[in-house]
Design a protein that fits this description.
Layout: E1 8-12, H1 16-27, E2 31-35, H2 39-58, H3 64-72, E3 74-77, H4 80-84, E4 89-92, H5 98-111, E5 117-120, H6 127-131, E6 140-145, E7 154-159, H7 165-177, E8 181-184, H8 194-210, H9 216-226, H10 233-240, H11 242-256, H12 264-271, H13 304-319, H14 325-335, H15 342-349, H16 351-365, H17 373-377
Helix pairs in contact: 1-2, 8-10, 8-11, 8-13, 11-12, 13-15, 13-16
Bound molecules: nicotinamide-adenine-dinucleotide.
Nicotinamide-adenine-dinucleotide (NAD) is lined by residues 12-18, 35-37, 41, 93-96, 104, 121-123, 145-147.
């Protein structure tokens, strides 16, 4: 199949991600079938798509005519066969459970056209494992959008072990047609690029608090106002959801090793169901509005203490053949809104300085902090 032949898209799951992906596909001119398990969820999703498009129209990014045309290209259904029978590309965005996603891929495999591409929006499951559910694993690919899909420009394109080059190329071209920036993740690996770099950084911040070295506000203030991140790691953990952070860390711990074990403060909040903004309490309380992070609270915290382990994680991706430096930089800027990519920070701060911080941490807290082969090779 060529990208010009790709015309009809099925999105399975109309939740946070599914409705947003359906929206961007419809705006890009695709015929979209959106499927979920109840008509009520689908009605709600269509309502959300309409209000999101209206907001874009108000800002002048979409005409009234294009808004109505986009909406008219979306059909909703609770019937899986109906949704996929004419689809050239299927994107699943159902809850993050391997058994559920495999079952759905198996059903899709039987009901969709033979040539159709089967894409998953999974954040942490293995594409290779998902592909085991279908007869032609070469047609399966990870197409990882970021939340909200209508605004976030990044899409990580992830091949499984058996994914064909043609499938990867189609997935990359499709992302570009949606006006997104795709980055190629060379090898299926837990957390792909953005989550692999970002989530251990949140865990690291929490380990510093656990060890009694600095306080939440000191770290958040330093990362926001000195490192110029959009927000500090604790505010971000609350924003993403403590349950999501915890569950991704558990996958990393299992697949990558004990260094990634969720820190005690994250585990405690998870067990107490203090999941961040959505439950009204996490590292901060939200009942009286958003927390205020004072600009001067971070004076004592050296941001390299967090930047060095985070950049080391990015460098491990390069050492392990998972991604190229330029793609890691693009992914972290577009997927995590960082002011610069990790390897741009290396250029600015100097590899020697960062490996120095890591060696100190390695001495105090163990081998997990050892500078990666790639970061060491960058030393002046
Ligand atoms: P969600 O819970 O908001 O939505 C999932 C939807 O799937 C629900 O509406 C549910 O009713 C529906 N569903 C359940 N079983 C179904 C079935 N058999 N067929 C069709 N629909 C079914 O979840 P979400 O946050 O949109 O996440 C979906 C996927 O996207 C997950 O794999 C998640 O890891 C990934 N993801 C989420 C985010 C995020 O920030 N929320 C970001 C990137 C990727």
């Amino acid at each position: 199949m060529k990208i010009e032949d790709l015309k009809t898209v099925a999105i399975l799951g109309a939740g946070t991600m599914g409705h947003g992906i359906a929206q961007v596909a419809a705006v890009a001119g695709y015929r979209v079938f959106l499927r979920d398990v109840s008509n009520e969820i689908l009605e709600n999703a269509k309502g959300n798509i309409r209000s999101s498009l209206e907001r874009l129209a108000k800002r002048g990014r979409l005409s009234e005519k294009d808004l109505e045309a986009a909406l008219s290209r979306i059909s909703t259904t609770i019937d899986l066969k109906e949704a996929v029978k004419n689809a050239d590309l299927i994107v699943e965005a159902v809850p993050e459970r391997l058994d559920l996603k495999q079952r759905i891929f198996k059903e899709v495999d039987e009901a969709a056209p033979k040539e159709a591409i089967l894409a998953s929006n999974t954040s942490s499951l293995s594409i290779t494992d998902l592909a085991k559910a279908v007869k032609k694993p070469e047609r399966v690919v990870g197409l990882h959008f970021f939340n909200p899909p209508a605004l976030m420009r990044l899409v990580e394109v992830v091949p499984g072990e058996k994914t064909s080059k043609e499938t990867v190329e189609l997935a990359m071209s499709f992302a570009k047609k949606l006006d997104k920036t795709p980055v190629f993740v060379k090898r299926d690996s837990p957390g792909f690029i953005v989550n692999r770099v970002l989530i251990p950084y949140l865990n690291e911040a929490s380990k510093i608090v656990e060890r009694g070295e600095f306080k939440v506000l000191e770290i958040d203030s330093a990362m926001q106002f000195k490192a110029k991140f959009p927000m500090g790691p604790f505010l971000l953990s609350d924003y993403i959801g403590i349950d999501i952070v915890y569950e991704i860390l558990r996958v990393f711990e299992e697949k990558l090793g004990p260094f990634y074990k969720p820190s005690a403060p994250i585990e405690k909040l998870f067990k107490e169901k203090k999941l961040g903004r959505k439950t009204g309490e996490g590292f901060y309380g939200y009942k009286e509005g958003a927390p205020k992070v004072p600009e001067d609270a971070g004076a004592v915290f050296d941001v390299n203490r967090l930047l060095a382990p985070m950049i080391n994680e990015a460098a491990k991706l390069v050492s392990e053949g998972i991604a190229e430096t330029g793609d890691v930089d693009t992914a972290m800027k577009l997927g995590a809104n960082l002011p610069e990519g990790p390897f741009e920070t290396v250029k600015r701060v100097g590899a020697d300085k960062l490996t120095g911080v890591l060696k100190e941490l390695e001495k105090k807290h163990g081998k997990g902090y050892a500078p990666s082969a790639f970061l060491s090779s960058l030393k002046q």
